[in-house]
């Protein structure tokens, strides 16, 4: 027996819309990149809109338990216009992020050579957003009284803990040490004074342990300006769950479209598997048409490999993607063609 | 006596930083535009960082009472790095917006001829953001326990009422009727299900009374993409307090900088005066250097005139600003030079 290769189980959740078209390519890229290095076994999960419409289940307990036992998760996208907003997002995607305690939502933004940014002078864009993944306005607290009456009141509660903030702040500082050693905390501390003040204090405190890393602060509104006017100034952006959601979509647009943006929902304590997904959604408008760009999904496979410690295998994907985009980035191709082109280069 | 001109009292609050440099130009433009049409009396208020550092007051009750009795307010900017974030913003700016029940925060975004957008192909950008101004995460609800300990928990609560949402939704539909008759509701209803669902239901309901107005929906994250990839698609963007804050700064960047973006905090029921301000902040980095662009402040004077019903006088300002930008928009000028140039054209 080959004792040099390790065995891993990967949960595969294609989900909805274009998620189903791009995820097979992520899996193929993973497979090919890991040849001779690691052995992957895939466990597919039929979760998402079709399943929900068929039998009403969103994330059955026994399936979640099986997912928890895997080594990592490849996810496509979640969301379907036939289903009321929030049901699948909260019942499946966010439930996994929360239950599997994936507290670091890691979202690199890079302008690849060959991609046309919508900005006239984009500069050299290469930053990472470290988005908190298990707290804030995403925790599902809040409610409504007197629904459907003129006296309705609806609340949403953002819960933030020093425990939850400190661990993601530490992750960001460690990451900054491997990069250009600069962190920008993004919040809205002039309005959200309770949470904002806590984030700032914890960043200041942890920052003292990393004298080589400089850090500054930007309000979320100002940060959306800088992403357009001077995106190359960022190295590591550290922010909460909602602001991270907003900034990474804008960042995706700035680097030429969310079709190139992958993400990792990371349990950095390795108690549960981490999950890797493109940041784009299920894109119902182009689903089923073999039009979606699988690059982001393929890049999420590279992030999965890095997470498991296979940096060289991840590099194989990165190099193939970079070469593909540089040569063919502006050509209109089908999902399958892009997938094949990238795999052929690996 | 001249009975043709009406008399109005305008509260002037230059505030902090560049607010003090641009507000005098807003006042001069107002004065000149209204010549022969209306008579303005100005009541200056010394509020902001200097005052706070001098005697500890932020917004004394008697001064707020005097402000409430005026017909409209010209405000510069609030915020100073010497003072902990939130104190002036919440104690002065937001307190006025809330106490004066300025529930419509109206923020037009227009790409003027002569301004260079950071976008390579900006298209014809001309939309208005109708931002709710008295609810949501800005209401100051929330708190913290065990501050400064590892067990700290900090919350922020977004309070949303059918009463508060419906009135701003109605304003947006009325405004859309005077424009290109399209509204985009922006929220995050797949995560913030309580508030998002209420917003959507109220938009659907009020929309039935305006069959000529079409409306669609975009998640806040997707909206930040469209502002970069296809900003000309928007006519009226309708959104809550926080999302409106974020989108209007990004929109300001997209139309060539927040130096051209004015806003009105409007009490559309006319119980209290409305307030007009540039959307930019106090910009401490360039304050006191005669560098800030007073155009946004001058445009806020035009919004004030429109609000009081002086559309022709407002047009005088708009025309002068448009001509100035078209001819000299790309020239580096001092605050005073831009102010003089615009006034000379009126
Ligand atoms: C689908 C949605 C719940 C999700 C989020 O808001 O986190 C998505 O926008 C993302 O960024 O992964
Ligand atoms: C200064 C701050 C409180 C304010 C806000 O968040 O509303 C500003 O950003 C704005 O947009 O007017």
Automatic annotation (TrEMBL), chains A, B:
Its cofactor is Mn(2+); Mg(2+). Its main location: cytoplasm. Residues 9-342 form the Isopropylmalate dehydrogenase-like domain. Substrate binds at residues 97, 107, 131, 221. Its EC number is 1.1.1.85. It comes from the Bacteria. GO terms for molecular function: 3-isopropylmalate dehydrogenase activity; metal ion binding. The record marks 138, 188 as: Important for catalysis. Keywords: Amino-acid biosynthesis, Branched-chain amino acid biosynthesis, Cytoplasm, Leucine biosynthesis, Magnesium, Manganese, Metal-binding, NAD, Oxidoreductase. GO terms for cellular component: cytoplasm. GO terms for biological process: L-leucine biosynthetic process. Binds 1 Mg(2+) or Mn(2+) ion per subunit. InterPro entries: ICDH/IPMDH (IPR050501), IsoPropMal-DH-like_dom (IPR024084), LeuB_actb (IPR023698). It catalyses: (2R,3S)-3-isopropylmalate + NAD(+) = 4-methyl-2-oxopentanoate + CO2 + NADH. Mg(2+) binds at residues 221, 245, 249. It is found in: Cytoplasm. The keyword Amino-acid biosynthesis applies. The keyword Transcription does not apply. Belongs to the isocitrate and isopropylmalate dehydrogenases family. LeuB type 2 subfamily. HAMAP family: LeuB_type2. Homodimer. PANTHER family: D-MALATE DEHYDROGENASE [DECARBOXYLATING] (PTHR43275). Catalyzes the oxidation of 3-carboxy-2-hydroxy-4-methylpentanoate (3-isopropylmalate) to 3-carboxy-4-methyl-2-oxopentanoate. The product decarboxylates to 4-methyl-2 oxopentanoate. This is 3-isopropylmalate dehydrogenase. The lineage of its organism: Bacteria, Bacillati, Actinomycetota, Actinomycetes, Bifidobacteriales. The gene is leuB.
